[in-house]
């Protein structure tokens, strides 16, 4: 059976992993559209741009794509910009987005953060059809998994969600996209909860009269280095709070490394010294 032809859009290391997966399965990549890689310059792994260049895949902007051409699928994987109507129209089978949170309850920004603020005991990742409204198209599939949000930071939850989204991607590629079977279930608009970028920034602010538990909840939810986390605003200055569980983790790692260093030096001294 002929493998699909796609336009692939994405960012972050997970996008590199799934693009490699498509190539290994013989998919035809018409073009790669990259978003926001300059925002992730702290990642040491291969970027979507460098990987695409190494494989001779055309890198394009949305504006450079020829909307009169047709592909089987337009796949958006952590793509950080709204996909234009003309690009959506290039997909003869489906234009879908992989969203690293369950929909419709966690649309838009601050998805990991809000789950922790909600003390959620489960989370999920979603693949949905793209329409002109962000994160609002019919659902193909949601992959849900349990979490212990009371002992997690936003960064911890992102790490879990990224692994689960790769699994969701592989599942849909093998069991749906390559078989040309594309499910669709409408989202319940009454459950929709979309947060935009500006609203996310407001959520990061800790009230000046917050108690310790509230402070720590916000700090855990928005701990996402190197980005600014939860903070107080005092005299027009932002005072970021490091969560207690992060300080304990750092202390544990430092102590572990120091113990290993001391132990090795003690051994070297004992074995090299004649008493």
Structure summary:
The mean pLDDT is about 90.
| Radius of gyration, whole Å | 22 Å
CA(first)-CA(last) distance = 76 Å
Mean pLDDT: 91
Q: What's the helical proportion of residues?
A: 25-40%
Structural class: alpha/beta
**Adjacency order of strands in the biggest sheet:** 3-2-1-4-5-7-8
What's the CATH C level of the domain at 5-194? Alpha Beta
Low-confidence parts lasting 5 or more residues at pLDDT below 50?
Answer: none
**Largest sheet: number of strands, sense, barrel closure:** 7 strands, mixed
Strand content: 15-25%
Commentary on this structure:
This protein is an alpha/beta fold. The protein has a domain of 190 residues: 3-Layer(aba) Sandwich (Rossmann fold). Helix content is 37%, strand content 21%. A seven-stranded mixed sheet has the order 3-2-1-4-5-7-8. The termini are far apart. The model has no long low-confidence stretch (mean pLDDT 91).
Which characteristics define this entry?
single chain; Rossmann fold; seven-stranded mixed beta sheet; two-stranded parallel sheet; globular
Topology:
Layout: E1 5-10, H1 12-24, E2 28-34, H2 48-54, E3 59-60, E4 71-77, H3 85-88, E5 91-99, E6 107-108, H4 111-117, E7 122-129, E8 139-146, H5 154-177, E9 194-195, H6 197-203, H7 212-221, E10 231-234, E11 237-240, H8 244-272
